[in-house]
Amino acid sequence: EPEVTQTPSHQVTQMGQEVILRCVPISNHLYFYWYRQILGQKVEFLVSFYNNEISEKSEIFDDQFSVERPDGSNFTLKIRSTKLEDSAMYFCASSRTVTNSPLHFGNGTRLTVT
Amino acid sequence: DQQVKQNSPSLSVQEGRISILNCDYTNSMFDYFLWYKKYPAEGPTFLISISSIKDKNEDGRFTVFLNKSAKHLSLHIVPSQPGDSAVYFCAAKRNYGGSQGNLIFGKGTKLSVKP
Questions:
Q1: B12 Cβ contact list (under 8 Å, min separation 6)
Q2: Which residues from chain B sit within 8 angstroms of residue A42, using beta carbons?
Q3: Separate counts of helices (H) and strands (E) for chain A
């Protein structure tokens, strides 16, 4: 069964550094998403992406964050200057359509900012 | 603002019995509801969904019931198996009118199925 793959599984970085989290969505899916889960908290929406542009973003997704689909298969999340509070599990997801279509999630990248 | 609530943090069930996981929501604009299962160190795995035009959807051992007037949904697992032990998340979204990409999750219920 097709799946969403994310790399790396764990990333440790120092405060102020840039990180790029990578994702390969399911190949016939058109909508892509990033979510995050801070330890002990709910899974939270960050951003959705369709047709090579951001379709929606949350308040969390400020100017420090950016997303890109650099080629036909990868989808990336960049955090320009990491803060301690960016430490979380980051999940990429994709869906075929935006209505009545489940999101399929990857196994996440655990980001630790020291 | 807890738009999706799972009030039971944990549930323990005997193997072979029925597991019933509950979820309440407050936003009447939600029209698509999903259940996910999550093992430690993995991402949420999609289980089953239901559109607001239905009140029941069944897939094998899993059935989701939706009561729109009560803003309540439940997931039934029959029969429960030890491999079902995981954290189950309820999630909801709007299909139309904005915020379509924003899946709102509950806090999860940890299900333990004992042999």
A1: B111, B112, B113, B114
A2: 105-107
A3: 0, 11
Minimal Cβ distance to B95: which of A4, A99, A107: A99
Rounded CA-CA distance A39/A58 in Å is 19
pLDDT tens profile A80-104:
999 999 999 999 999 999 888 999 9
Structure confidence by residue, pLDDT tens digits, B29-80? 999 999 999 998 899 999 999 999 999 999 999 999 999 999 999 999 999 9
Residues of chain A neighbouring B42 (CB-CB closer than 8 A)? 107-108
Question: Between chains, do B44 and A105 touch, taking CB under 8 Å as contact?
Answer: yes
Q: Within an 8 Å CB–CB cutoff, is residue B43 touching chain A? A: yes
Angle at B51 between CA B47 and CA B57, to 5 degrees: 55
In 3D, which of B93, B84, B80 has the Cα closest to residue B45? B84
